[in-house]
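FIELD: query
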Amino acid sequence: MADSSTQDPEPSTSGWDAITAALDKLYPGQEPRHWGTLIPYSLGGPDPLPGLSAYLHEDESGVAHWHFVSFGMSELYEKESEEPDISGWGFEFTFRLKAKAGQTEPPKWPLGFLQNLARYVCSSGNVFAAGDYLPLNGPIALEEETLIHAALVAEDPELKPIDTPNGRVQFLQFVGVTMDELAATLAWETKKLLKVMQMNNPFLVTDLSRRSILEDPSTAQTVALGTARDGSSSGVLFVTELGIAESRKLLGKKSLTVSLAAIAVAGFQASLRGRTAFGRPFSLAGPETTVTFVPADSFSWKAADEGHPAEVALSASAALSLAKALQPVRGDYSVPDLPGLIVRVVPSQILDHTGTKVVEVIG
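FIELD: result
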């Protein structure tokens, strides 16, 4: 028998244990469904999250949902980062999905959804925070017929931030929304729209079968009044496709063409109404270029140059005219108040999980 004093100590799982302890308090006595990765991400595996768990949550009315929680965006084992107060990226993902009647096992597709979020953070270095929004470029679950095509980021309603031996961890919940709800968010504010949703959905459960909350006249009025009062808090609209080209027409007249995908039109309209009309700038940010729209008394533009993005200056009335003229349909759009500015809408292609097969075209 080997001398125990010479054996390597067991690796610390203090970060993992702290998350588990928080979940045990929320779900006492419940054994979660758990999935782990076969090959660690650090050794070339495809999945950044070494673990995902799902708990069955039943409220007082008997309505059930699956509560998914990630393990791996924070430091689960030994402390490695140089930031003593923050564990890893500082958060773990959560996602609540309405359970179907009689369902005894959670669906597997949310695992891929959460792993994709983790891949984005690990590859880009960009972190999420409560109040963020995420267009999904298609249905949140490709195998389901659903209007949920985007997500908002909230603080988990029940899992509060915890202090672990490796630093603080926050639980960020991704909440599925429809495209018109996303547009309403961009025109107003994520956290305020989430509060409206919580009036009838306190745990912010994603329900793939639901219609938009804006189909309810009372809710739509609440959102409209808040938007008219506050304007938009979103200074940047991230789009998957964006092109900017300056050209010279006959008689020496210049034009500026801003190209974007049909799926981004609603967000662009919301930003024109909720930012420019309130005297606030905003930017369209694509993978390779950015254009900033700034409020001004008169119309002008500057093409992009080294170190500076393209810039369009326009009045509130012109912004509202452009927002009214745009449609999520292929074509060139312009308004008399903005001579020389062309907004070109191109079709959006939505790919399946392999990234190769087109499953839907918008516009």
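FIELD: remark
Residues 1-6, 352-360 have pLDDT under 50 and may be disordered.
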